[in-house]
Amino acid sequence: MLFDLKMPGARGFSGLMYLRGQYPAAPICIISAMDDPATVRNAIGLGASGFISKSASLETISEAIRTVLRGEHWIPDDLIGAESDRETAELLERLRSLTPQQVRVLMMLGEGLLNKQIAYELGVSEATVKAHVSAILQKLGVENRTKAVLAAGRIEAGEWRGAIEE
Predict the structure, then answer these.
(1) Which residue range is the domain that position 52 belongs to?
(2) Per-residue DSSP letters for the chain?
(3) What digits encode the pLDDT tens for the residues 5-57?
(4) Which residues are in the HTH luxR-type domain (predicted)?
(5) One domain for residues 61 and 97
(6) For a FRET experiment, which of 25, 101, 140, 163 has its CA 20 to 30 Å from that of 56?
């Protein structure tokens, strides 16, 4: 599966997290113009099988896709061996532990929606949303919904902040 971080309705890494949760065995390769080292490391850390820069040559894109389809990982040569800091790696692992529904709830929290609004949008009870919010807070190791959104925003490079700012 090819996935663009700027795809409408996906909001960056939240779309990758959702797809990884729904289809854990599917190879997902990010193709994006946002190809700075931190973005690439975060994509791989959140479960992408590969990362292709939109500026890559057709030959490189073809090689990357073939590599991912063989079940291997594709990382641009200039990032092989690059390490992310320990705190970011731990946060990525915590974000990967969210279920697809929890990712949806977290995205909606980032839009500033109330539990009642989220429940309506997802077609679930408000109690279910509260349970998801509690699970999100526990998994991310934060004490409130604002900090959960800010933690996710650190990975999203500013794209997940929505209506809630520091």
Answers:
(1) 2-84
(2) -EE-TT-TTTTTHHHHHHHHHH-TTS--EEEES---HHHHHHHHHTT-SEEEETTS-HHHHHHHHHHHHTT--B--GGGTT----HHHHHHHHHHHTS-HHHHHHHHHHHTT--HHHHHHHHTS-HHHHHHHHHHHHHHHT-SSHHHHHHHHHHHHTTSS-TT---
(3) 877 766 678 788 888 878 888 899 998 888 877 788 888 888 889 999 888 88
(4) 91-156
(5) no
(6) 25
